[in-house]
Specification:
Elements (H helix, E strand, L loop, with lengths): L5 H37 L6 H21 L1 H19 L7
Helix pairs in contact: 1-2, 2-3
Length: 96
């Protein structure tokens, strides 16, 4: 007669969940760091159209990696970027 040992399954599933969370966090932090490095390197005062295009292509690839790893974080980042662009367009400061 065999018995089911749920403790071994629980330990393995907890370890797998921890590993998956650790890997997701690592990938997200690496991608965000790379996007910030791209921004600092490519977008400066003397930015040309080529560097702007290069930044857009690089950021698109990096955000695609985020979308593949975690769809919820990707959706929240896109929402935040949309809000930032909207607030930038609706600049309500009164110039005197």
């Amino acid at each position: 007669m065999t018995t089911c040992n749920k403790n071994d399954d629980n330990i393995e599933s907890t370890f797998i969940q921890f590993s998956r969370t650790l890997l997701n966090t690592f990938v997200l932090l690496v991608v965000i760091t790379l996007v910030l490095a791209l921004k600092n390197r490519l977008l400066s005062e003397g930015t040309t159209l080529f560097y702007t295009t290069l930044f857009i292509i690089g950021a698109t690839i990096l955000f695609t990696i985020i979308g593949t790893v975690n769809n919820y974080v990707y959706s929240q980042l896109v929402l935040g970027m949309g809000m930032a662009v909207g607030l930038q367009i609706m600049d309500w400061r009164i110039n005197k």
